[in-house]
Amino acid sequence: MKLAYYPGCSLKASASPYQDSTLLVAERLGIELEEVPEWVCCGATPTHSTSPLLSLALPLQNLLQVEGMGVEKVALPCAACYGRFRVADYQMKNNAGLRSQLETALGAKYRGSVAILHLLDLLVNHVGLETVREKIRKPLSGLKLACYYGCLLTRPPEVVAFDEPDNPSSMDRLMEAAGATTVEWPYKTECCGATLGISYLEVAARLITQILRAALRAGAEMVVVACPLCQPNLDVRQEEAAKIMGQSLRVPVVYFTQLLALALGQEAGKLGLEKNIIDPTAILRQRRVI
Could you give the dihedral angle defined by the CA atoms of residues 259, 263, 268 and 270, in that order, rounded to the nearest 10 degrees? Predict the structure, then answer.
C-alpha cells in the first residue's frame, strides 16, 4: 500500500517521536509513505482565527502537491493538519465562490481526487485490525490505557466523519488489537487547552488536570494520544499544572504509534520514549512491554 505522507511542522520538530514511530509502524505493516514534496505549513489553529482565506489556501496548496504525486490517499498523523486538510477539501467541494477564488489565487485547478486520512483512520479502516493483529509480536498485555482523541480529531463530524464525534473508539480498538486494555472514561474528546498553555496557563492547567485525573479515576496507567499538540501539553505542562491546581499528578502521555511500534516488535530505543517529561518506561518494564 502506497500513500502520500504529510508530516506537518510539529512532527519535524517537537513531535519527532511521533514521526519516528509512525514511520516504523508503517514499515512493519508494509505501508509505503512518500512524503509530500515541498509541503508547507497547514496553518493549524492560528491561521483560521486570523485569515479564513489563508487558512484554506495553505492546506489546499499541499493538496495540489499531493494530486501531482499520482496517489489515491494521503495520510496525516497530526489532528490539526488533518482537520485543516478536510475543511479545505469540504469547502472546495461545497462552496463554488470560494473554490473559484482559491483556484485563481493558487493558479491551479483542484480535482478533489485524493482521500484524506488521519493515521488512525488508515490503520483501523483501511489496513484493518485483523492485519494489525497478525503482525503483533509483543502484545501490550496488562497495560491499561486511556485513549485521548482531543477536540480536533473527530469534529466537525460532517467534515471528518471517520469515527463517532463524542465517543470515538478507533484508537481504543487499535490498542486492544495490540493486546492492551482500554478504559471507559468521559474526557476522551475534551479540549486539553493546547496553546492556551502559553497565553492562559491557568485555564490550560485546569483542563490538563481534569483530563488526567479522569484517566486515573478510570484506572488507566497512561494516556495515549494521536495529536502532536495534545501530547506536549499534557506531558510537558503536567507538573506545572499540578502545582497550580494543587493536585498530585504523574501520568505518562505517549503517542499511540509508540505503543503500536513496540507491540509490532520494534526496539524501544528508536521510539523517543526518553524524551517524555513523565517517564513511561517504568510502567512499560513492569508490564514487560520493554
Answer: -80
Sort 235 into a burial class: Cβ within 10 Å, 0-12 / 13-18 / 19+: buried
Q: How many CB atoms lie within 10 A of CB 51?
A: 13
Full-model pTM = 0.97
Which CATH fold would you assign to the domain 2-118?
Glutathione S-transferase Yfyf (Class Pi); Chain A, domain 2 (1.20.1050)
CATH architecture of 137-286: 3-Layer(aba) Sandwich (3.40)
Q: Cβ(231)–Cβ(225) under 8 Å?
A: yes
Statement: residue 273 has pLDDT above 90 = yes
DSSP H helical ranges for 178-266: 196-199, 201-217, 230-236, 238-245, 256-263
Residues in contact with 236: Cβ distance below 8 Å, sequence separation at least 6, in sequence order = 277
Beta carbons of 264 and 25 less than 8 angstroms apart: yes
Which grid cell is 203? 485555564
Digit-coded pLDDT (tens) for 21-69: 999 999 999 999 999 999 999 998 788 788 999 999 999 999 999 999 9
Q: Residue 210 carries which side chain, given as an amino acid letter? A: Q
Confidence band (pLDDT; 50, 70, 90) for 197? confident
